[in-house]
Amino acid sequence: MTIDINAAIAAIGAGIAIAGGAIGTGVAQSAIGSAGLGLYAENPKDLGIAILFLVLPETLVIFGLVIAILIMLAAGLV
Amino acid sequence: MLRSEECEKVRIIVEKKDLNKLVSALHAVGVLDIREISIKDTQKIDLKDYESLVTELSIKVNSLLDIIKESFGSDKAFKAYIKKLYIKSEDLDLNAIKSTLDSIKFTRILKDKEELEANKDEINRLKSILPILKTLSQFKIDVAELNNKAVLNYKLVVVDRRYFYELRNRLSNIKNLAAYNKALDKNHYALLIAYKKELEQEVDAILNRYDKRELSIDLLNGFSGSPYSAYKELLRRIRELESKNKEIISKIKRSADTTVDQLLIFKEILSIHQDRVKAISLIGSTESFAIVEGWVPVSKRHMLVKELNDTLYKRYSISNIKTDELQPTVLRRPDILKPFDYFLNLYSVPRSDEIDPGWIFIVSFIIFYGMMISDVGYGLVSLVIAYLISRVTDKEGLMHNAAKLWMISSISAVVFGLLSNEFFGYQLSFLPTVIDWTKNVITLLAITVIFGVIQVCLGLVFGFLNKLNDYRKEADKKELMVAISKLTSILVIVFGAIAVSGYLFNLIKGEIVLISAIIAIVSIVLTVILGGIEGAEVTNLITHPISYARILGFGLASIIIATLIDNGFTPVLSKGLLSVVISTIVLLLLQFLNIILSMLEGLIQAMRLNFVEFFTKFYKGNGDPYKPFKEKRVYTYKRVI
After folding, report:
1. B388: Cβ–Cβ under 8 A, 6 or more apart, which residues?
2. ipTM, two decimals
3. Which CATH architecture has domain B138-225?
4. What digits encode the pLDDT tens for the residues B264-284?
5. What is the pTM of this model?
6. A57 falls within a domain
7. Considering only CA atoms, which of B563, B545, B525 is closest in space to residue B439?
8. What residues 47-66 of chain A have any CB closer than 8 A to a CB of chain B?
């Protein structure tokens, strides 16, 4: 079996793009989540706002996904 | 459709003697949102007796219901009991309610509760004595002697082993003092100190130097004999009181059959009166007239006039008030779509002078959720799960409304599932696959980003219209500049998208790409200059449409996980019966887990795309919701006179 080194590097790059976004999202959400629960404990009516702030950093992983797709597209993997 | 329904502010004037009839008519028709009277020289209506009677009766009814509910052990059991009752009654007046509440069957419940609480206090008091007697039982002493303070005082302390010897030595140096000690366990000692009254201060001074727990001997007043026999007697008394309380609780529970239906009726009638008290407190009066002001939707004004005619036989006047006040927000949507309004209001109620994004939120939510699930099986199972959740949750609560959203949106998940030919991750060979998530990634990415471009541009158009409206009202040039910056923002997105897609995918000629890029860059500069502080959000014009790629991301993830579960755990008969059973259980569990995750993600992400990416372009919120003065009756009906 022969492996195209360019395709392999592109696949690794796509993986890193997703992983970076996911780690960033996780770090941000851990802090926001705990603060959000604190807010909810103080005032249960603020649950909506707490969830809203919690989901904001998920954009990072979506950017990672888009970059990954673009890398794979450039490498002819998709 | 995209605006709040138009309202009129009206003023109704009646003779003071007709006030009750007016309030009753307004309450029954339920279309007027009563507001504080705006005429300065009017007086408030004296509500003292009425208000205090309603409050007194409400407190009594609520406490009686609480007592009975407590006897059921849990809210759930009490609710289940109420559900079985058939309750219907005509309206009752407050005096009738008062005299019924004073009857023996209700006063007995209150007395039982008093006895129950007294017994509980006594049990707690006795339980606090138990550890003292238990500690004292180490010593050979008559408990009655400890309370005889004619000559000697006593103290009982529990000391840590580390300080015990030092403390005992210090105490032994005092004349006319005897200290007896017993080891309670490895680390603690009990010390019973007997001393002459006059040594009190000296003993306290020594004891205060050490970390110890003092057990109050004064609590033993009335006990006699050996500490162990007193301990046994105490336990017997506690058990006796506890069984007495059990009897009282079951007696209260038995009384529910003859009282709960009446109490629920009273509660409903009193809540209607509480609403009336609140409404009357907003009404103004002169020497002979009462004046009510409030907002009524234009489409419902005729209902108000008809009810007033029927009740007051034209002995009233109604007129429109010209005002600059912002009218309340009236959102008209079918009941089935109310859960969407619940979440919209959770974010913020739209103002009446801005565009109501509710309908776009509803349509886009259903599409985005459906795309993110895109599986017929998942759609159907989520429908069943959501239905079950809606059955067991509180109707006003978050989970109930979320369940309703899932139910409505699951239909869209089934439709997208059919288009994707996905059935729990399996594809049926006889069905065409219109959307192939794994093979058409780029096309789907483009489609989702186009969704983003459309919705974000729509948000900017709404923002432009809102700002233009503000400019018309306030004639502030800043508002006009911001309004124009919304238009240049649209140019940034549209031409930016053309330039980027043309550059990346070679779909458009080079010259068009270049021109688009130039227009986009110029528009960015204009947006920053015109938008002021809002112009600083120019980066969001790029990130927000891309954010819609999450629809592809979550849809793809849901489908791939479902397929992986199928590939790994589809039962194969040739591997034996045990393997089939285990594979089936694991397959079902993992698919169920994926369904729950997909439901949660679908709900949160579809909502987030609307609230973060769409609403931030135009939405002000903080509106004043229309709250009509309306009777809420479940168990009662109006008395026909």
Report:
1. none
2. 0.72
3. 2-Layer Sandwich (3.30)
4. 999 999 999 999 999 999 999
5. 0.75
6. yes
7. B563
8. 47-48, 51-52, 55-56, 58-59, 61-63, 65-66
